[in-house]
Write a structure and sequence with these properties.
By secondary structure, this protein is α+β, with helices and mostly antiparallel strands. About 10% of the residues lie in helices and about 30% in strands.
Length: about 190
């Protein structure tokens, strides 16, 4: 290996049987450096941007959907919203349900929102609502209509099937006995 490196650097002559250093030519080290220019963009506000995956940026396609697989906003509420945002957008909930861990669910006519402290853990739309608005796209709540809009599901379970983009997920919950649709939920896929 050393001999090969010396040949490449011009220190060793390929025509001699031994290593020779030429006195006529000084040895110079050559270093190739790649550089890149980076521009920092200052951030002047605290708005959280949700990454949007497209066909040009996705590493792999998870479904045959024409939908962009963002799964971040359901019926006007975003997974990035806080409790205060929800109250500002939706107003006072019709019911507040608390579980044994102190987590709360705000129940509205068209959506249920789960909180842990100030942060949303899930957004759920019961089947009785009839439609969802997912990232601005209106979809009728039916298995065929959801598959038409979102494509083939990425996973299935006893209680439904779902779609994921690596960051967030959408799950279509069904009754395990009848197969009837129960709700459509979105949640942070990294926390489940």
């Amino acid at each position: 290996m050393i001999t090969l490196m010396m040949l490449l650097a011009g220190i060793l002559s390929p025509y001699s049987g031994s290593a020779q250093v030429s006195d006529a030519t000084p040895v110079q080290a050559v270093t190739t450096v790649q550089s890149a220019d980076y521009e920092a963009t200052p951030v002047f506000h605290t708005e959280v941007a949700t990454p949007k995956l497209t066909a040009s940026t996705a590493v792999y396609s998870t479904t045959d959907s024409v939908y962009d697989e963002q799964y971040s906003q359901l019926n006007g509420i975003s997974l990035a919203d806080t409790r205060e945002d929800v109250l500002r957008i939706k107003g006072k909930p019709s019911h507040i349900v608390e579980n044994e861990l102190g987590d709360q669910e705000y129940q509205y006519q068209d959506v249920n929102i789960g909180f842990q402290d100030q942060w949303i853990t899930y957004i759920s739309v019961p089947a009785k609502v009839g439609t969802i608005t997912l990232d601005g796209q209106k979809i009728t709540l039916g298995r065929d209509e959801i598959r038409k809009a979102l494509g083939k599901p990425d996973f299935s379970a006893e209680d439904g099937e779902g779609y994921t983009n690596g960051l967030s997920a959408l799950k279509v919950f069904t009754d395990s006995q009848t197969g009837a649709l129960r709700s459509v939920d979105i949640f942070d896929a990294t926390s489940e």
